[in-house]
Known about the structure:
Blueprint: H1 2-18, H2 20-52, E1 57-66, E2 71-78, H3 80-103, H4 110-129, H5 133-151, H6 158-189, H7 194-200, H8 206-223, H9 240-248, H10 254-261, H11 263-267, H12 270-291, H13 297-317, H14 321-348, H15 366-379, H16 388-399, H17 404-433, H18 440-444, H19 451-476, H20 496-501, H21 505-528, H22 531-537, H23 546-563, H24 568-599, H25 601-616, H26 623-641, H27 643-648, H28 654-659, H29 661-686
Helix pairs in contact: 1-2, 1-4, 2-3, 2-4, 3-4, 3-9, 3-14, 3-19, 4-5, 5-6, 6-8, 8-10, 8-12, 9-14, 12-13, 12-17, 13-14, 13-16, 13-17, 14-15, 14-16, 14-19, 15-17, 15-19, 16-17, 17-21, 24-25
Subcellular location: Mitochondrion inner membrane
GO molecular function: NADH dehydrogenase (ubiquinone) activity; NADH dehydrogenase activity
Membrane topology: Multi-pass membrane protein
Amino acid sequence: MYLSILMLPLLGSIVSGLLGRKIGVTGSHIVTITCLIITSSLSIIAFYEVGVCDSPVSIHITSWVNSEFLNISWGFLFDSLTVSMLIPVLFISTLVHIYSTNYMAEDPHNQRFFSYLSLFTFFMIVLVTGENYLVLFLGWEGIGVVSYLLINFWYTRIAANKSGILALTQNRVGDALFSLGLFSIFWVFGNLDYSTIFSLVPYINEISLTIISFLLLGGAIVKSAQLGTTWLPWSMEGPTPVSALLHAATLVTAGIYLLVRSSPLLEYSPTALLFIIWLGALTSFFAASTGLLQNDMKRIIAFSTVSQLGYMFMAIGLSQYNVALFHMVNHAFFKALLFLAAGAVIHSMADQQDIRKLGGLQKFLPFTYTAILIGSISLMALPWMTGFYSKDLIIELAYAQYQFSGQIAYWLGTLTAIFTAFYSFRLISLVFLSYPNAPKNDYLHSHEASSAVVIPLTILSLFSIFFGFVFSDLFVGIGTDFFGNSIFTHPTHITLVEAEFSLPLLLKLLPTIGSIFAAISAILLYNNIPNVLIDLTDSPSALTNSISNIRGNLGIRLYTFLNGKYLLDVVYNKYTTGAGLKLGYTVSKVLDRGIIELVGPFGISKLLMNTAANISRLDTGIVTSYALYIVLGLISILFILFYPVIVNSTLLSYDQLLNNSYITEMRLIIIFISALFILNTKSIDSN
Length: 687
């Protein structure tokens, strides 16, 4: 059964990809969706057997690397952490497959698209089920390659090419750091197997563990699009089902899974944990403030993904790995709901993604409006919604740490929650509640999608409402031993009791109160009194007073700064990309084509050819020239032979000759060669 979870998505991908022309579009849909439905059903059984019944399974297939120093096997581990990851991965992948049958119905390359989706799911399963870091790295690289194929699926579009290349190149940086982390693990532990490494961690030097943690963290930062990376919001050029699959439960959560799986390593590195807290808090605040004034519907949701990933990093830095995993699972459901519902809006409104050019869709798309409303309420973590049971808990745990970093994380997390509610309801106001701004023809042709779209949205809506309430005690309840040995938390880092019972009620309710206030403000500002925002960004005229000038300039600059993503692209292009191009030009022109070619094979061959040409010019056929050469050679030989006499004015003694045997040997060699030359010359003359 457990191997079937691995192999069925691969089977669907192979059949759809290689036999797509034989079985047709409908056959490709049936094969891939059937394989995913069966796999999802098996994952539920595995979740019950492994997680609820506490019976982890380890499968050893065969040996992969068997050397004197390193033994790695093809092994797969199904523990509580693995089966918890399989639920969102397989469920959302199955729903995305079903959704895509309608969304991609007009595309001529359906078989290729479904083959990529199933292959991506297979590599994600390999990543979460591998029992050593090398198998995990295989799945890690696999999802990176297939994500490029999916983002660049419409490869005739230049924007898709650029987005795919950006995602691939930035992820390669993280992959390089991750591979260095694997080399470091092997150097320190002598193995890459989880059980061996984690059992030896308490006996290893803290500096070594910190270096390993930061190298693994580098891979997780890029894969999960943390502060400093820019690829995730720009990967929206692929089809919307791809965005839902990549951003909800698979690609971006791979970094979170890596850190949660490596919890024993991180727990003995306080420096790495402190860095992760700050990184997560700053990332969540940066992404939320950037998403405030974005206008592309999918990009707004993408920035909310980055913000929620920052919350997960924050929880990992607080040593609350089970809370980070719980929020990742919750986030997967309501974020997939938001992406798929946004895709339904885009598909219905002639592929229009700019929220300023939509509006008034509440009566035209009531079901889609309900789905986005449920997803947004869960995202802003209103009480009794799925997001509330993990997101607010992370903020409370930050304050319960009672340290400066925890206090900063709490306030940044609270501001992030307020910003999240604001841009979520800004999207709802401009798309569904405000005055219609789209062409009349688009409204006349707008319609609710078919059952292939309604079914996934309905299921995800139910998960976004009830999943957190049903599974909160199992995942993050006080005293739960659901994760057993799959997650390690040092006893001194347990703060859940403090967060539950010691915090003032106002601090607990502050994120929720702020979110409600921000949501109401967004509805009022963008629906009832939009002129206020127009005045803030309106260019001041010559007739306005100085206060209006200050207000107009401030509004324009603030809007430009936030809408321009903190001008991060400008910084990258000017200081990173520009400097890299100049360095590459210097290396190419000066080093490669200059020094290396001059000293290397090209220079040596040219030197030998020039030397041979110069020597050949000596063959003039003139006897007097030959006589001159002979005389010069004789003088040179005599100078070499009698060099000690000329320099020291005396012959070397016998002892000196013994001490300088190499001089004697050289003289003898020269005499021998000269004698051979003279004898050869005489024999030629006699003939």
